């Protein structure tokens, strides 16, 4: 993917400038600078962040996240025991703007065989695409903003993803397309796409899929909307005989504005290891603290999402798959995303984070009822939400299958196994 001449010219950056799109603006400004320190978390160097003086002087400045990076005129480290945060190598609100498993895989492949390029956090931030999730970008210059990423067709994006997944070298005409997959989270093949006035996320089937994964997600999104859950518009499109899931981005506005997003991992101040001990009530507690707008509706929405995840077999509901918008003052839930029924080899299943405060995570509706009070819901409220979600799935299943272009055989393979598995209705573990 990278010639030797180009590789010799490319180097791992020694520092990076964080650029941000402030609310109600369409052009980015420099928020601050990232520097590596002598401290380490595991094998990763801890990166410090310092707000730029020019940024602190702006009237419309906002903190990148006040809980993590308050507007202070000093160097700030991400790991500070005095404020009770987990040990982190990079502030979570900045890490949320970086590439995740799939994006890192693309970058790893780009620089394979070139040991002069250190694959560290600064490298991943610097060499991922600029049209990333949220409202941040990372540049080597504080004076001139130069976006990374060229144009690519949906077919080119899909072809590039297939070659990367197979570990094959990309031809020159697909290198730009590959870059579209570097600035988005998740572990499965995907890319960012501009289609006229719409900005989209394209999700592709994996060569390891043994189930209709992207069609199942499309069906789940359709059902979620029917159940009263906020989701992005979606469609299944057939490209070169293969199905692609297209999702409208909810972190972009038509006038060029970008909306800052924070993962629940960041909001709870957790690292990946600590997230295993987190729970839905932890999120509910955070919402009740008052940094959020419309607390009661937000809690009800989160509980509905919990119930829905259990009902559709989405056991991959970890803290990076929950997120909120941040406007500098208030957090608000983003539309739900990654609502993907997970392959089920047995009847029993468990959610990625705890359903109850004491960490019970069996994928069962009885635990949803048990934890309802954490969401300020009465037993009656909880039962009404559960009944509504279950009946919506049953009553809208055929419409969802049509929307997702599922065959009769594929639909039959999902219903009763991933979706509405009998296990979720058991009254004991």
Q: In words, what does this structure look like?
A:
The protein is an alpha+beta fold. The protein has three domains: 136 residues, no CATH class; 95 residues, Phosphorylase Kinase, domain 1 (2-Layer Sandwich); 165 residues, Phosphatidylinositol 3-kinase Catalytic Subunit, Chain A, Domain 5 (Orthogonal Bundle), CATH 1.10.1070. 31% of the residues lie in helices and 16% in strands. The chain has 14 helices and twelve strands. It has a five-stranded antiparallel beta sheet. Strands 6-7-9-8 form a four-stranded antiparallel beta sheet, with helices on both faces. Strand 2 and strand 3 form a beta hairpin. It starts with a helix and ends in a 15-residue tail after the last helix.
CATH class of the largest domain: Mainly Alpha
Oligomer: single chain
> What count of structural domains?
3
Count of helix runs: 14
Which residue ranges are poorly predicted, with pLDDT under 50 across at least 5 consecutive positions?
Answer: 1-8, 170-182
Helices and strands, in order, run as: HEEEHEHHHEHHEEHEEEHHHEEHHH
CATH architecture of the largest domain: Orthogonal Bundle
Identify the overall geometry: globular
- What's the count of strands? 12
Kindly provide the radius of gyration, computed on alpha-carbon positions and rounded to a whole number of angstroms: 22 Å
Task: Outline the secondary-structure elements.
Elements lengths: L3 H6 L6 E5 L8 E13 L2 E8 L1 H4 L18 E2 L15 H4 L5 H10 L10 H6 L9 E4 L14 H12 L9 H5 L10 E6 L2 E7 L8 H14 L7 E6 L2 E7 L12 E3 H4 L12 H12 L3 H18 L10 E4 L4 E3 L31 H6 L8 H26 L3 H7 L15
